[in-house]
Structure formats: C-alpha cells, structure tokens
Amino acid sequence: DVKVTQSSRYLVKRTGEKVFLECVQDMDHENMFWYRQDPGLGLRLIYFSYDVKMKEKGDIPEGYSVSREKKERFSLILESASTNQTSMYLCASSLPGLAYNEQFFGPGTRLTVL
Amino acid sequence: DQQVKQNSPSLSVQEGRISILNCDYTNSMFDYFLWYKKYPAEGPTFLISISSIKDKNEDGRFTVFLNKSAKHLSLHIVPSQPGDSAVYFCAASAQVQGAQKLVFGQGTRLTINP
Predict the structure, then answer these.
(1) Interface residues of chain B, partner chain A, Cβ below 8 Å
(2) Burial class (CB in 10 A: 0-12, 13-18, 19+), B70
(3) pLDDT band at A98, cuts 50/70/90?
C-alpha cells in the first residue's frame, strides 16, 4: 500500500520562526511536490523535485525553500514564517514519465502562524 | 491568473441521480486533465484522467468528457452515492523535467442527499 507521510497534522508557530515541514514516501518515487491549499484557491504548487538534490519552483515559491537530500524525503522550509503562510500544506509524490502518473498525497499539515 | 477554473463552489444532488462537475481551462499546452477527490482531514486521491488527444474516458460510475475547442471538461458520476460527497478538484498537467506539474481548480463541494 502506497504511503506518503507528513511529520505533523497540526502545527502552530509564531511570526518570524523558521519552520520545517517534512514529507516521506515509501514508493521509491522520483518526483515529489509541495502544495498549499486555501479556500477558494484550490491547491497551488510551491516547489517540486524530480530527483535527489534537484528542485524546481512552482507557481508560488516566494517565502519558501526546499531540500531533498534523500530520494524518499522532501522538506519544505519557511525561513521566516508570516501570518499569510497560515494554510494547509500537502505533499505528494509520483513516478516520472511522459504520460500522466498519479500523484499520491499525504494527509496534510495544517499550519497556523500567529 | 487562474488557468484552471471551477466556477461552482458547491453542488447538491439527490442519491441515484447524475452529478455533473464542470471545469474550464485557458492554456492549450496542457497534455492531461484529471480529477481528484478530497475528504476532510485526508489528502486528495486520484479519480480519473484523460489525455488531451481524447474526448472521453470512462471508469465505472465516473466519466470525464473533454471539449478542446471550448477548453472545457466535465466529470459525470452516475448513479451518485452518499460516499461521493467530497470536494472535487479538477487539474491540468504539463510536463516539466520529467515531472507532471499540476495546476488545480478551486474545487467543488459535492453533497449527495439521501
């Protein structure tokens, strides 16, 4: 059974704190993704990675960075958290390929920045 | 600019009837279109996809129709069941560095009434 796990379901941080969100997949997938979900906006891609140590900006990368030191782990970093980064964060992984390969999602981390 | 739009935030349907969810897109370069389903407190799960070279794909009770000239796709669920109550996200895919980058719509909350 495929699995994407995220380190926390709920997280509360203060403005200015450095925040790490961790994601681990056990499917040996090359591709990993970080999204945020906000009401009325759907899911928006922050960053993705197509291989270890490789990363690409998504549609809303400002204020975020990522790290992928191992194939199974993809971290999202908020260097200095701000209240407008309060959101649901979703991690996903998929196989590479020219055809569409299903992205498998984790359960999400609801982050609140006070 | 919203490249993928779901203009109906919510939809209510009687059990046993047909549910039709709609989605519009603006970018002709998308190569796949797909639907994800999301229950509360869970990550989205893949439902069905369609290649941009096809106009219909069917999987059990779920059928996706693609009208390229109108840049419109729809998801039909027949017959609708209470377990179908969820938020449905339409997404469009484009290939970037071997990864399928997804652009999501805002989501439609489907409620199936007994």
Answers:
(1) 4, 6, 9, 31-32, 34, 41-46, 49, 51, 89, 91, 93, 95-107
(2) exposed
(3) low
Give the Cα separation of B43 and A89 in Å (integer). Answer: 10
The DSSP element (H or E) to which B89 belongs, if any, is: strand B86-96
In eight-state DSSP terms, residue B29 is T
Contact state of B101 with A45 under an 8 Å Cβ cutoff: yes
Instruction: Tell me the domain boundaries of chain A.
Output: 25-97
The model's pLDDT over B48-62, given as tens digits with 9 standing for 90+, comes to 999 999 999 999 999
Please say whether the structural domain A25-97 has been given the CATH code 2.60.40.10.
yes
The values of phi and psi at residue B82, to 5°, are -55, -35
Going by DSSP bridges, is the β-strand pair B19-25/B72-77 parallel, antiparallel, or unpaired? antiparallel
pLDDT over 70 for what percent of chain A? 97
